[in-house]
Amino acid sequence: MKITLITALILLLLIPVAFIGCTKGENDPKTSKYCLVTKWYAQGDTSQTSTKFSYDIQDRLIFWDGPGPVDNTIEYGNKSITIRAVAPYSGNYSIYYLNDDTTTNYSVTYNGGIVLDSTLYFYDASKFLIKSVRYTDAFGKDSVIMTYSNENLAKIVIYNSNGTAPQATFDYYTDSSKSWVYQNIGPYNNNGLYLPWLGRSNKNLIKSYSSDFNGNPEPITITYQKNTDGYVTKYIMNFMGTSDNHFLEYKCK
Fold first, then answer.
1. How far apart are CA 133 and CA 120, in angstroms?
2. Which of 206, 240, 247, 203 is nearest to 223 (CA)?
3. Which of 16, 208, 234, 246 is spaced 20 to 30 A from 100 at the CA atom?
């Protein structure tokens, strides 16, 4: 199975995750316009493949209308962020406890109001996430090590409690990655999603990646179409002779 942004969201429907608005000039301080993702979807858009986002006046995401029946609200506390599924799934939520620099120190995920797992996060001096350690009663401890090159994620190794160590490696274009959402076009920490409070995102757009997460290390290559402001409007994922088209829509300022 290819791990894409939409695929990951479907897999995590009942363990809420969410997104926050991108900042002005996130990876390009000279830009005069910034855009927030309002929708993304796969070719043949249906309720099962599209995701819509709503923001507050501070451009923070406050509601995620995701694929299928489960939507999520996002609440911002003084030093925490809570992502909660709407009723009748409101017992499923995640709380991210923040450091003073707004990166996440640790998180706790609840399923039906019962703790499912907890995760510690570690960063380098440049605020890139380099390690996470997840604890579960069912499976024990899993660790993830991530390395970077030229301000881009170069390699992920997941050390599972069952002794396996799946990994992924990446190549990049020189094109600037203007939104944190693009980080999720490829796999991320523990097969989860990149969120803005998990440190810095990639500087450039992912060109290809090889992963044995699914038992097949053949690389996935990615091509992009962008608007005049440099934001991705379409990306095509090529894998073993097949192509998948994905689309992004924005509101811009």
1. 5
2. 206
3. 16
Q: Is the dihedral of CA 89, 117, 167, 171 positive or negative?
A: positive
The 10s digit of each residue's pLDDT in 79-128 is: 999 999 998 999 999 999 999 999 999 999 999 999 999 999 999 999 99
Whole-prediction pTM = 0.85
CA atoms 99, 12, 173, 38: torsion sign: negative
Q: Which residue has the tokens 């829509």?
A: 249
Q: In which residue are the tokens 């380099």 written? A: 130
Q: Nearest Cα to 179, choosing from 68, 85, 53, 93?
A: 53
H/E stretch holding 116: strand 114-123
The pair of three-digit structure tokens given for residue 131, joined into one six-digit string: 């390690």
Taking the C-alpha atoms of residue 110 and residue 116, their distance in angstroms, rounded to an integer, is: 5
Four-point Cα dihedral 123, 124, 128, 133, nearest 10: -30
Tokens of 152: 């881009």
**Single-letter code of the amino acid located at 93:** Y
Q: Which two tokens stand for residue 154?
A: 């170069």
Tokens encoding 62? 């406050």
